[in-house]
Amino acid sequence: MPDYNTVLTLLQKHGQEHILAGYDNLSANERDQLLEDCARVDFGWLDARWAEMQASGGSAADAEIEVAPVVELPKTEAEKARYDEARAIGEEQLRAGRVAAFLVAGGQGTRLGFSGPKGCFPVGPISGRTLFKWHAEQILARSRRYGAPIPFYLMTSRDNDADTRRFFADNNYFGLPEGDVVFFQQEMVPCLDLNGKLMLATPSTLAMNPNGHGGALSGLHRSGAIDDMRRRGIEYISYFQVDNPLVTICDPVFIGLHVQAGSEMSSKVLEKNSPAERIGVVCSQNGRPAVVEYIDLDEATQKALGADGRLKFWAGSIAIHIINTTFVERVAGGAGLPWHQSRKKVAYFDGEKVVKPGSENAIKFETFVFDALPFAEKTLNMEVQREHEFAPVKNAEGVDSVATSRELLTKYFAEWLREAGITVSTPEAIEISPLYSLDAGELRTKFKPEGFTFERSIVLG
Ligand code: UTP
Q1: CA gap 206, 191 in Å, rounded
Q2: Overall pTM surpassing 0.85 (yes/no)
Q3: Closest by alpha carbon to 444, among 410, 416, 415, 411?
Q4: Is 198:16 a contact under the CB 8 Å cutoff?
Q5: Distance separating alpha carbons of residues 237 and 229, to the nearest angstrom
Q6: Closest ligand 1 atom number to CA of residue 211
Q7: Maximum distance among all alpha carbons in the chain?
Q8: In angstroms, rounded to a whole number, what is the distance separating the alpha carbons of residues 120 and 130?
Q9: Are 338 and 288 in contact (CB under 8 A)?
Q10: Of 104, 114, 240, which is best to mutate to test ligand 1, by the most ligand atoms within 8 angstroms of its C-beta?
Q11: pLDDT for 358-397, tens place per residue?
Q12: 125 CB less than 6 Å from ligand 1?
């Protein structure tokens, strides 16, 4: 247990002693908690972040970037044959049990404003199936299809770990073997106010945030999850985010292309719907593969056109990756990913009460998983069709919201039903459990009502 004087001296050395101003008013437990939180801060790291921020003026320099190669959607027979070949290779990896699913679910989900882990959000257009259930069922269905286990790793944070574990336990792991569901926590880092000072979240705890989805790589390593993967013979990690119910987890074509290319980290991309769409683009930066965020691109680069009249940087990354376990080990053992800072609204304890600020009052530091790309010897980018793979739930309303996600799900499933020969006229809602069908092909084999016309809502599975 750190003692008061040691912690005070440490704080004074870094100009942060204000944080103990209310110490005398705390209970014994609260005092211990606050001293522990302070003693855990890596002040060398924090000072470096603040200095970095001062030096850059708080914004990243415009990036000098080049176009990166992408395996585009197959159009010709030869391209379709290449896809089939890739699918066969991916399926072989799945049958051999060499692929794990990895969900990063440690985020704070502030834009959605849902109380509880974002994965507990009921996204199902009819049944209210939660995001966690959707993902877990897909993993279970795919593991059944290939007759091999697909261990499911979930990264949580201090703030949502207990709730996430409880949700899975209460739902019997959605049918997955309990031993194949592995949770680990990412690290938390303190945030600073706009003057570089630590803030309190409560009278006895520092305001902190999870260290970004880039914390996935160090987290896999530090938690022992990567050793667990090695013991199970896992070579490929299917990385995805919690908020996209349309993601194809452990996609055999994606795995196959990744293996064929000898890639260490591969990314799914789609055609941006406008130059200003708020997703990062895959590119080459200083000769290395990279994803550059939209805010780091100037308007001219965002709008630049290629020879074909398409946006030059059309390929937006949707945060779906295949990553080699050996690559995670190498990157996690290295110098670490760069830190990004952003201004956010962070609730804080002002000495009397918790204040929810109306405007940005704090700096959050985070790492991003795509910053691992430049470390890869070889990468691959695969184009996917937006309507088939991307329906993120980011906001409570408007763009990328619950409503748009449900609508996209319904549209996609309507396409499956039409492919199965069913007449579908503007449905209200459609929901198909991954356990019922993983794709249109599987649906065709199961659901063949002759001459059926479908009009309102339907849940299958
Ligand atoms: P977002 O960038 O959408 O962040 O995360 P968020 O925290 O979920 O939501 P906002 O920005 O506060 O509204 C994309 C994915 O990365 C995960 C999230 O859980 C989500 O699956 N993530 C993000 C982490 O696992 N840890 C983090 O520190 C940040």
Answers
A1: 8
A2: yes
A3: 416
A4: yes
A5: 9
A6: 28
A7: 80
A8: 5
A9: no
A10: 104
A11: 999 999 999 999 999 999 999 999 999 999 999 999 999 9
A12: no
